[in-house]
Amino acid sequence: MRKWKRQFALEWNHIFRNPWLMGLPALYGVLYTWFLSAVSPLNNFFIEAYSFHALVHTLTLGIVMLLGILAVRRDIRRPAYEWSTGLPLSYGMRITAKFAAAMAYLTLFSLLAAGLFAAFSYGRGIESAINISHGVYFFLSYEISYVVTLALAMLLAVCLPNRVVYLIGFCAWMFGTFFMQLFIVERYNLYVLRTFHLSELFVEGTRGYELWGYGTDIDELIRSGLFVLAFAALLLTAAVTILNLLRPTKHGARLWFTAGLSVLLASAAFAPYGLLWHDRYSSYNAKINDETILDIVKLWDERTEMFEVANYDLVLEKAGNDVLFGTARLEIPVSALIPQGKEEITLTLNRLFSVSEVKANGDPVSFTRQGDLLSLPWSDALEQRESVGLEIRYSGKVAEDNGKGLYHAFVQRDNVLLPRDFVWYPFPGMRHVYAKEDWSNTLQLASMYKEMPFPAAEYRLTVKGFDSKLYTSLPELEPQGNNDKPHGADFKMQVFQGFGKDGISLFGGPFVEVSVPSLPSRIITTPSSRALAEHVLQEWSGYYRYFASWVAEFEPRIQQVGYFVTKQMMNERTENGMYSIFASHGGDNGYAGLLMTEMLLGTRKGSFHIENTRKDIRLPLRSLMWYVYYREAEGLSHKDIENGMADFRMLGALFHPDSNEDPDNLGGRMAEAAGKAIDAGKISQVKEILNYFYAQGMEIPLEDPDGPVQASPIPYEAWEREWERVMGQ
After folding, report:
1. d(C-alpha 693, C-alpha 714), whole Å
2. Strand 305-306 to strand 427-430: parallel, antiparallel, or no bridges (unpaired)?
3. Which UniProt keywords apply (predicted)?
4. Is the pTM above the cut of 0.70?
5. How many Å apart are CA 463 and CA 472, to the nearest integer?
6. What phi-psi label fits residue 602: left (phi over 0), alpha (psi between -120 and 50 degrees) or beta?
7. In this predicted model, what pLDDT tens digit does every residue of 653-678 receive, in sequence order?
8. End-to-end Cα, the chain, rounded Å
9. Pairing relation of β-strands 522-525 and 512-515?
10. Which of 719, 542, 571 has the alpha carbon at shortest distance from 629?
11. Which residues of the chain have pLDDT under 70?
12. pLDDT tens, 225-236?
């Protein structure tokens, strides 16, 4: 051990007394500090820091590659130092001492990455526990990348004594990072190979996001990290073995035993990682090969069969191993089942869940499953009642990979994503959960391509055993008797209850709630997006005060907003008074105006069905509400608005109409008439007209052609009549 320490001290001095090498960590720290200090308060701090690491950390691997090659070529593979092979110091000691000294130097970069992030993040008011968690993740990612890259560089230097090793080292650096990322992993969806990526932080997927990021990949990161460390040990062992073969040795048996053992350890370390991806690919390929899952083209021709449900009583409990146990009680009017004209009752429940028991009116009944369908026999005895009470017990572990390094849904520790379209509770009728893209051989949730209806019912949802507070679109009942419990103790059980017509989704993670007294809504987001949420709420509250001052029958349509910065593929939507924004990057994209539009006017998802503005002017009317705002509250003239001084996303139906849908430019004529009236001091009359149509409904929902009509079109003639009535007085 004394010999090794002296060799380590020698290698330490070679590195830490080199001013050029010592200047690199200082330069890194200066650049990192400058970058973090320049991050806008409205941007997500974690995402911005990760983007810096994804590039700069990959560049530092070039330093690692060069350092590893130089460490070996300085004496071991240098002809002028052949005499050193006669020293009483084994190659194993020399290689490990060089490796340890180089890692001690490279750890400076890791410490700067973690320490500066934690310091700046704490300065932005983010909790220390969260800062430490993210800082540890950056530190370990740096260290693991440095370990395997350094071991590879030293092996290359041992195998290639010629100077061509510098070129080969450069190629290995490029291939193991940028080339592998762009041309192997992403192009061919071979995400199983990302464990061989030299940079742990330059990997496509969810890890670069604060929400549902690396926390959802903890199991994979642990297994991958163990394999990478074992593989690095294999590379170092290979280097020592090659060097020992260059000179006679009496320890040949021990040499080959050590080499073989390192191969076995690396193989054994890869087994858990390989099994993880084997399970993922098996589940994914089973769905791809399932003929009951339709292609997206055929999906559009399929109708969603659905019958009425009066009440849902759902209980969802999470066990310690992240397995979910669910109990669903459905009260179904018999009148809703008889018109089905079938010999069985069909329900839909995601195939990941196994059903253990089904009861009808308290009596156990048989059932069959095919894919996502659950079929129950229909009996004449059920017709004698006014309603049928079904009780379904099911369980399963949810962590479904979509084949691209992302997830359809998951429940992992305190991270929960159970979207309604995943059908995590029984759906009345038959619906398609998944859809295939035959041309790309990929699978997605069917809702990504086609909106599907949900039954309107009274819901009661009880969740138990979850590690974090959960959020959904239903109102949460106040916990009883929890006043003396510590913060977070009531998260183990939450009860939500209310009327829902858009299905139920469940979200859990490192969320914070942000609200202001002047606005009857709140934003649920992550700590790094708190400043943006506060900014949006302040701007949104200004809009709210203005419209609430004169819109007569204003009833806010959304009570809470989920602002989720994540890579998970989800559509923005309104669900029972909760509007969810899924963004792949931070920053303000005019969210206050978007949210005010949803709160005041509701959705416009069905606007593509409006083919003639003369028959339906709801789009121009929605824009006129904002036109009046910009004229009165912002003090803009009609010419100012035409010149682009207002947000044209709110005014597109007035100033940029579709010539096919509005060939007569009715939207422009309505704006011009309203503008002239406002200039003449008749803004109160314009508001009276808009209130008249607002009471009729300006929402444009996406309606099922075969379903009930939810909103009525407003023809242009109605506008002319009301305008003449009010302005002619």
Report:
1. 8
2. antiparallel
3. Membrane, Transmembrane, Transmembrane helix
4. yes
5. 11
6. left
7. 888 777 778 888 888 899 999 999 99
8. 102
9. antiparallel
10. 542
11. 77-88, 203-205, 248-250, 338-342, 380-382, 479-491, 569, 703-711, 729
12. 999 999 999 999
